[in-house]
Amino acid sequence: MNQSVEVINQLIRSRRSIFPPDYIEKEIPREVIEAILENANFAPTHRLTQPWRFTIFRGAGLAKLADFLGETYRSQTPAESFTTTKFEGLRSKVLKSSCVLAINMELHPEKIPEWEELAAVACAVENMWLTATALDVGAYWSTPGNLPALSDFLGLGEHQKCVGLFYMGYHTAKEKPAIRKPIEEKLTWVEA
């Protein structure tokens, strides 16, 4: 097997969601974040719409995002359902991260359906995730329940929407094996 295939196989098969409780207090340099984002830019895209957009929260920007998520949860949750644990958890995930990217999507309804734009954005995120893995940066994609409010907070326009948050940080997480059913259970061959 050629070396490039071995490298990509290893990256794909070792990529995992690594969560903020495993992050350490070590800043991800801007050039590392830019390298991760540069690879996002090479995702496949139908009609070259390149729908991925990112809002990067670092430094004091993390506190702004944490405040927004916490206060949105507080304002949108009935008093009998509100828990301090969830409120603090939302804030803590952001504040333990070195960087959080809002994953945004630019829609082109006159050209292609929304699901194709979302597929392209998901491919961009996978490119980021694989690059982060190669750089020993932990990451995971989370989709909070308040996406419309998050889109407003981000100042997104009419044909834009937020589809989640991508948390990143250097980490101390131990390697975990992938849990996957055999590919043979997911295939249908048509050869005649």
TrEMBL record:
Which residue positions does the secretion signal occupy? Answer: none
Name of the molecule in the record: Putative NAD(P)H nitroreductase
Q: What is its EC number?
A: 1.-.-.-
Q: Which residues does the UniProt record annotate as the domain Nitroreductase?
A: 12-170
Supply the PANTHER family for this chain: NAD(P)H NITROREDUCTASE YDJA-RELATED (PTHR43821)
Molecular function (GO) terms listed?
oxidoreductase activity
Q: Name one Pfam family in it.
A: Nitroreductase
Gene source species: Spirosoma endophyticum
